[in-house]
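[job 4471] stage=fold_predict status=RUNNING
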Amino acid sequence: MIVIAAVIVAFVAVLVAAVRLNMAVTDAGERFRVLAAGYGDAGLLVGARQRFRRRQESVEQAVDTGTVGLQTAHRTISSWFGTQQTGEGFYNNVRAFNRNLGRTVSGLFAPGPKKHSESLEEWREQQDSDTPRDKR
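[job 4471] inference complete, writing structure tokens
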């Protein structure tokens, strides 16, 4: 009779352990999906920032090229009339404004300062503290 009771208790213990293991695997799978989605979003964000920076650089290059073209045209026209007013300060101001505007806009989309990277133990403690007592 004792042997049968011990087998039944062991069988119940194995069932409980199997159910808890199944719940833990399901929970780990959900956490993995969330983690994988986060990495996917981070990759999309990095790609978007790179595309934005390429477009920003092309706009800055176009403004600089346009400024050089206008400066050359003004020099040519002023030489036709015999005046030598080049307006270097104005064109330098346009270029400086273009650079500063690009940096300002780029700063709005730049990543913030890096946050503290927690260790695995700190993450587990945080997860354990977030988990309600009845789920443990």
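[job 4471] summary: The longest helix spans residues 2-80.
[job 4471] exit 0
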